[in-house]
Write a structure and sequence with these properties.
With about 300 residues, the chain is an alpha/beta fold. Helix content is about 40%, strand content about 20%. It folds into two domains: about 160 residues, D-Maltodextrin-Binding Protein, domain 2 (3-Layer(aba) Sandwich), CATH 3.40.190.150; about 110 residues, 3-Layer(aba) Sandwich (D-Maltodextrin-Binding Protein, domain 2), CATH 3.40.190.10. A six-stranded mixed beta sheet has the order 2-1-3-10-4-11, sandwiched between helices. It has a three-stranded antiparallel beta sheet with strand order 8-5-9, sandwiched between helices. Belongs to the UPF0065 (bug) family.
Length: about 300
């Protein structure tokens, strides 16, 4: 009688690739997964985190596909920027060129101003941009066309504003953009809600709107959504786990199971809640379909922004 086939497991070290530098949100997620897998014992292999920043993700993603195509042990932390960077011509690799494994969480965007800003609320912001799209400077980290940029541009588009005329100032890091609006060097900064909460609670920033489909909890529960204000502008800077092109199906199934267990971890749930991250596991097929829809929707808004190849 033949013995049953053993379930697939990775061999050797497992690598989690991060296409941006240490200390960034994707890097923090990679190291959180590394720690949970070690603590849970979910992944028996040694797990290493490798940072390969540059080229709008092109450097790291090129390394993943060129060096590790077909591997089941090489992973990458992916996000909405993978889609926007491909559409904007900064990278040749998007969701279709790699293997989506699982969506982990969504980060929604808050629209922040200085507490003393003459902009009274979100509707006032839109009215000012309607009157003159270049009347306000908008600080964007870290590239035009990304989720932060979309968080204002999509609402402005719904209001009939020519979004190619919006005055944007690009910063290399989210901390630089926050510092700029707190110092009144720019008028508005859209950024992930989790990155803004401390300054909001300290009275250093004021939130006008959030891009979530429903109001968010806790310290930002009083902040309206764009949607409830009449602008259908839901924008998520999602995070997920992907593998290289041609990752074997059995490896995808293995990592789907690992993610399922990871997201049930109490520390993971606590961290997501504290970071205002909306955790939702989408497995391979659902995640791949979601990415495709994201690409179609983003293509339209980026075209309206005048961004793209």
């Amino acid at each position: 009688m033949a013995s049953p086939a053993l379930a697939w497991e990775p061999e050797g070290d497992v690598e989690i690739l991060v296409t941006v530098g240490p200390g960034t949100s994707p890097d923090q997620l990679a190291r959180q997964l590394q720690a949970i897998w070690r603590t849970q014992g979910t992944v028996k292999n040694n797990v290493v985190v490798t940072n390969k920043p540059g080229g709008g993700g092109a450097v790291g993603l090129g390394y993943l596909n060129n060096e590790h195509a077909g591997s089941g042990a090489n992973l990458v932390i992916a996000g909405a920027s993978m889609v926007s960077n491909k559409l904007a011509g900064r990278s040749k690799i998007g969701c279709a060129e790699v293997t989506p494994i699982g969506h982990i969480f969504a980060e929604y965007i808050g629209i922040a101003v200085h507490p003393d800003s003459p902009i009274k609320d979100a509707k006032d912001l839109i009215e000012r941009l309607k009157a003159d799209p270049q009347s306000l400077s908008i600080g964007i980290a870290t590239s035009r066309g990304n989720s932060n940029h979309q968080a204002i541009a999509l609402a402005a588009k719904k209001a009939g504003i020519d979004i190619t005329k919006l005055k944007t100032v690009v910063f290399q890091a989210g901390s630089e953009a926050r510092t700029a609006v707190m110092g009144k060097h720019v008028d508005v900064v859209p950024a992930s809600v989790g990155s803004l909460v401390k300054q909001v609670e300290a009275g250093q920033l004021r939130l006008l709107a959030v891009t979530s489909p429903e109001r968010m909890p806790g310290a930002v529960a009083n902040v309206p959504t764009w949607k409830e204000l009449g602008f259908d502008a839901v924008v998520s800077n999602w995070r997920g786990l992907m593998g290289p092109k041609d990752m074997p199906a059995e490896a995808v199934a293995y990592w789907e199971d690992v993610l399922d267990k990871t997201m049930q971890d109490a520390d993971f749930k606590k961290s997501a809640e504290a970071g205002f991250q909306t955790a939702k596991l989408m497995k391979h097929e659902e995640f791949a379909a979601y990415c495709k829809t994201e690409e179609q929707n983003l293509s339209l808004i980026l075209n309206d922004m005048g961004i793209g190849e």
